[in-house]
Specification:
The complex is a heterodimer. By secondary structure, chain A is mostly helical. In chain A, about 80% of the residues lie in helices and about 0% in strands. Chain A has one domain. Chain B is of the alpha/beta class.
C-alpha cells in the first residue's frame, strides 16, 4: 500500500512533466524557424526538448528524486519539442498557445507513464524458495 | 574493483545525500517494508552515505560495506542514529573478504546498477549468505518495454559517467549467479 504522501509526490510529477513540456516549447519558439520544413523543425524540436530535459532535470532531482523523473522528462521534452515545432511550422498558434500545448504534451506523457506504472508495483520474487515462503 | 569506479563514487559522496533526498522521501516507505523482512545477522552491500540506515527495523546486527572511503565517512555520521548495531567495513562487493555462510540476510539498495561485474558480486553475496538465508534487493533496472528501454539505453552513457547504470537486468543476473 502506498503512503498517504504519495499523492503529493505524484502531483509534483505531473507539475514537473508540464514544466518540461513548457520548457521544450520555450526553446522551440526561440530556436526553430517557422519557415523550416516541418520534418526538420520536428527533429530540431526533439533535440531542443532533450536540451530542456538536461537543463531542468538537476533541479527536479533535488526536489522529487531522479528515478521517476528521468523517463518523464525525456519523453515530455522530446514529445513536446516535436509537437510544438510542428505547430510552429503550421503557424497555428500564438506564443501562449504554443506554451500551453507544450504543457499539455507533458501532461499527456505523464498520464501515459502513470497508467503504465500502475501495473509495475509490488515485490518481485526471483527465487522459487521466496514463492514458497 | 576498478579504481575509476571507486573514484567516481568518492566524488559522488559529497553530494549524494542532497541528490538522493527526493528518492529517499519517495521510496523510504517501500524500503522499510522490504527491510522489515531482515532477520539474524545482516549484511548491507554498498552502504553509501548510510541514508538507508533509518529504513532498517531496530535492534539488528548489521555489517555495512562500501568500497568508497568517502562514502563510509558520511555513513559513520549516521551509525549512531540507528537503534541497533552497525559495523562499517571498507571492502568491495566482488571480493568481500568475509567468511562463507555467515549472514542470515543480505540487503542491497540501488547497488547492482553500479557493481562493475554484477554476477561476480552476486556470487560473492551467495557465498557469504547462509544456505537458508534471504537476499533482499531494492534495485532500479532496465525496462522491458522497448520504447522506454531504448530511452534508457540512450541515457545510459551519461548516467554511467555520473553514477549508476540504467539498463541492468538484475533479476537475470541473480538467476545467473
Amino acid at each position: 500500500m502506498r503512503p498517504k504522501y504519495a499523492v503529493f509526490l505524484r502531483l509534483f510529477d505531473y507539475i514537473a512533466a508540464m514544466v518540461y513540456g513548457t520548457g521544450a516549447a520555450l526553446l522551440v519558439e526561440a530556436a526553430v524557424n517557422p519557415a523550416w520544413p516541418m520534418p526538420l523543425g520536428m527533429i530540431a524540436g526533439m533535440i531542443l526538448g532533450v536540451a530542456a530535459f538536461a537543463i531542468l532535470t538537476p533541479f527536479f532531482i533535488l526536489l522529487i528524486g531522479g528515478f521517476e523523473i528521468l523517463m518523464t522528462g525525456m519523453f515530455a521534452g522530446m514529445v513536446s519539442g516535436m509537437g510544438c515545432a510542428m505547430l510552429l511550422s503550421a503557424s497555428t498558434g500564438s506564443h501562449k498557445e504554443t506554451l500551453l500545448c507544450g504543457a499539455v504534451f507533458g501532461l499527456l506523457v505523464q498520464i501515459s507513464l502513470h497508467i503504465y506504472d500502475v501495473k509495475h508495483f509490488g515485490d518481485v520474487a526471483i527465487s522459487e524458495r521466496e514463492n514458497d515462503a | 574493483m576498478p579504481d575509476t569506479s571507486i573514484l567516481k563514487w568518492d566524488k559522488a559522496a559529497a553530494s549524494l545525500d542532497l541528490f538522493s533526498r527526493g528518492d529517499h522521501i519517495r521510496y523510504e516507505h517501500f524500503k522499510k517494508k522490504l527491510f522489515s523482512k531482515c532477520r539474524g545477522k545482516v549484511l548491507l552491500i554498498a552502504a553509501g552515505t548510510g541514508a538507508d540506515f533509518d529504513c532498517f527495523p531496530a535492534g539488528l546486527d548489521i555489517t555495512a560495506i562500501d568500497f568508497s572511503s568517502k562514502m563510509l565517512e558520511k555513513a559513520r555520521e549516521k551509525v549512531g542514529r540507528y537503534a541497533g548495531n552497525i559495523r562499517l567495513a571498507r571492502t568491495d562487493a566482488e571480493h568481500l573478504g568475509l567468511k562463507a555462510d555467515v549472514f542470515d540476510t543480505v540487503v542491497t539498495s540501488c547497488t547492482f546498477c553500479s557493481v562493475p561485474n554484477p554476477v561476480a558480486g552476486l556470487k560473492e553475496l551467495f557465498r557469504v549468505m547462509k544456505p537458508d538465508g534471504k537476499l533482499l534487493m531494492f534495485e532500479h533496472v532496465g525496462s522491458k518495454n522497448p520504447i522506454i528501454g531504448a530511452m534508457m539505453a540512450i541515457m545510459n552513457p551519461v548516467a554511467k559517467f555520473l553514477g549508476p547504470e540504467l539498463t541492468r537486468d538484475t533479476a537475470q543476473n541473480v538467476r545467473k549467479a
